[in-house]
Amino acid sequence: MPTITTERLRLRQLTDSDADAQFTLELLNDPDFHRYIGDRGVRTLEDARQYLLRGPIAMYASHGLGMCCVELKDGTPIGQSGLMRRAELDNVEVGFAYLPQYRGQGYALEAASAAMQWGKKSLGLTRILAIAAPDNHASIQLLEKLGLGKEDVFTFPDSNEELALLAWNRESQSSKQ
Question: Does residue 99 contact residue 26 with C-beta atoms inside 8 Å?
Answer without folding.
Answer: yes
